[in-house]
Amino acid sequence: MTKTEILKAAFTAWGRELYLNTSLTQVARELGVSKPALYRHIKNKDDLLDAMAGQFLDEFAAFLREHNAPHPQDDSEVDIFSLIRITAEYFAQNVNMFFFSFVRLYKRRNCSESLMEALQSRGVDFAAIQRQLAQKYGLHPHMRHIIFMTLTFFMAVFHNQHKSLENPPSKKTISKKIDMIIEIIERGLGYTSIEIRTLDYKALETRVEGTVVNIKDSPLLKAVVEAVAEAGPWEASMEQVARRSGLSKSSLYGHFKSKHDMLRQLFITEFLQIVDFAVQGMGHSAVPQERVYLGIFSIAEYLRSRPDFLVAMDWIRTRRLDFSKGEHKQDWEDGLPPDFPKLFEDIEIKPFSGGERFDDEKGRRRITHWILFLIINILMLSGGKEVKNEDIRFLYRFLTLGIGGFAS
Fold first, then answer.
1. Are residues 355 and 206 in the same domain?
2. Same domain, 180 and 204
3. Do residues 182 and 264 both lie within one domain?
4. Which residues of 239-278 are buried (b: 16+ CB within 10 A; e: fewer)?
5. ∠ at Cα 150 (185, 211), nearest 5°?
6. Domain tally for the chain?
7. Is residue 203 one of the residues assigned to a domain?
8. In this structure, what CATH number is given to the domain that contains residue 205?
9. Which DSSP string corresponds to 128-182?
């Protein structure tokens, strides 16, 4: 049994459950050895996870170098879309590495900077994209991160749709998906600069600001929010919720069947409130592009006003809370119930040549998920409260125009 074999088994065994469970027993079972035998090669679980992070970075950097990614000593101009394509190709071909990086590395607030430093030390100047973005599309501190998170979101959708862990996608399928991702990054939802330039952001924001205070919270779900914000969705316990709510643990089971049911009720309740609040905000205008901004700003305003729930909601960045498992597996699509309120499904979206269908119900639901995903990413970069309205305006321009809307 070699270190390489142990790492491969860990990526396979833990990746199947998206790292919800990282037990060494699973790795030992995957290798067909006893747990004591495994301990002769590794110190503990954290030691193995560190080794996995190192292997991911080594392999990712090697792939980028092989495909002519910029070297730290190279001053030549970087083709941003070529670099995006190379990155997307690696994650499309290496599903285990994608899920590991998505779940284990990108959930931390400063992960982008640490990842860039790690690649720099391995001979890849991935930060060159920031320099080129500044020259061609203007300098916004979140641009690189939002591009990468868009790539990550649609790559996760791709692997989930194709069940890539069991059925590796073909080169043709991968190429088609990457074309679509690049088109979305380049042109967003397909609006024109003229359509977006007419927006009076401040006037629209004034219609929404300060109205979140009207929302009433359930004291019990508030206790769940606080416990989840403190410990995280998977570490939060029924005991913590009981202590915060003033109820006994046995009394909690009169409200929730299980911890999973408790989390499900929390997120669905808050999602419904977010959607209701956003729908009210969108009702202040009949102009499509204004309605989109009002919806985005309303969601951001809701989450900025509720920092505990923002932290709890951060699960969506890695989609680690899979509501589609278990009793609702046959009835739910993309982890949400079929009667979940619509939000951005009715906005005008220009057709995409890359092959992604946004003209059907499932495709339009993904638009709402993408927008939610990016809003939470922007807010989590600085803990929510520090995010200014200018950052929300930037995100709106990216969503509607892509980076092409920032070209000088």
1. yes
2. no
3. no
4. ebbbebbebeeeebeebbeebeebbbbbbeebbebbbebb
5. 105
6. 2
7. yes
8. 1.10.357.10
9. HHHHHHHHHH---TTHHHHHHHHHHHHHHHHHHHHTTTTSPPPHHHHHHHHHHHH
The answer to whether residue 46 sits within a structural domain is no
pLDDT in tens, 350-378: 655 445 555 556 666 778 888 888 998 88
Cβ-in-10-Å burial (0-12, 13-18, 19+) of 139 comes to exposed
- Asked if 276 and 321 sit in the same domain, the reply is yes
Beta strands in 331-392 (DSSP E): none
Candidates 230, 362, 160, 202; CA nearest to 297 is: 202
Looking up tokens 């278990």 gives 326
Place of tokens 């692997």: 159
Any idea which residue has 């057709």 for tokens?
A: 351
CA distance 99 to 91: 9
**End position of a domain, from candidates 187, 211, 246:** 187
Total residues belonging to the chain: 408
Residue 48: exposure state from Cβ atoms within 10 A (0-12, 13-18, ≥19):
buried
Q: Examine the domain organization and report whether 130 and 259 are in the same domain.
A: no
The mean predicted confidence, pLDDT, of the chain is 81
Do 230 and 315 reside in the same domain of the chain?
A: yes
- The pLDDT tens digits for 236-285 are 788 888 888 888 888 888 888 888 788 778 877 888 888 889 999 999 99
